[in-house]
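Tokens as discussed.
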């Protein structure tokens, strides 16, 4: 099924409105708390990188880190957008689990390029959903790249809910890709979730 301009426009518009719900936070944490949180994440990322394990082993470790530090449920909801409104709780849970594994594998492979380099926190600022933590990844033999984490305690604990890697918005990228999967499957979430699982 080929998506029509109206379908795409509706998904982006309603999805954008839906995302405003993520802009609420109790703001129980400080900028220093959010910065320290990302510094712990960076430390754990490099523990995996420096472990010298095989790529499959490292990806499994990155998946565990993603589950620990990322608000997977909120990220999955955002990626699914308006298409998730008619989904059952079971379907949403299955999609969230699959999405978490998919993202961890996809971006875990990107983190492998940080071998021999370092990531440094450059600054932090308060934003409406929580805090933006700006870091720079200094890579061996390559130009530095900017990595930005958005952090909030909206779900009851401090977690990151979005990431910008070299200016690319993780959530917007994944929403577009998930939307394309759903369109190809005629809106069948179960089929799209299977596609996502096989894409990991």
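Sequence:
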């Amino acid at each position: 099924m080929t998506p029509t301009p109206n379908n795409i426009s509706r998904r982006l518009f309603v999805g954008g409105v839906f995302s405003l719900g993520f802009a609420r936070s109790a703001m129980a944490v400080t900028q220093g708390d959010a910065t320290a949180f990302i510094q712990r994440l960076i430390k754990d990322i490099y523990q995996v990188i420096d472990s010298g394990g095989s790529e499959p082993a490292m990806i499994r470790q990155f998946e565990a880190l993603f589950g620990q530090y990322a608000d997977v449920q909120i990220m999955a909801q955002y990626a699914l957008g308006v298409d998730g409104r008619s989904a059952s709780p079971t379907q949403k849970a299955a999609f969230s689990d699959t999405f978490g594994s998919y993202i961890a594998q996809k971006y875990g492979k990107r983190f492998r390029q940080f071998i021999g380099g370092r990531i440094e926190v450059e600054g932090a600022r308060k934003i409406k959903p929580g805090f933006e933590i700006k870091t720079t990844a200094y890579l061996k033999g390559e130009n530095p790249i900017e990595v930005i984490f958005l952090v909030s305690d909206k779900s009851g604990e401090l977690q990151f809910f979005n990431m910008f890697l070299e200016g690319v918005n993780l959530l917007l990228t994944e929403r577009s890709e998930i939307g394309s999967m759903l369109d190809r499957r005629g809106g069948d979430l179960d089929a799209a979730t299977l596609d996502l699982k096989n894409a990991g």
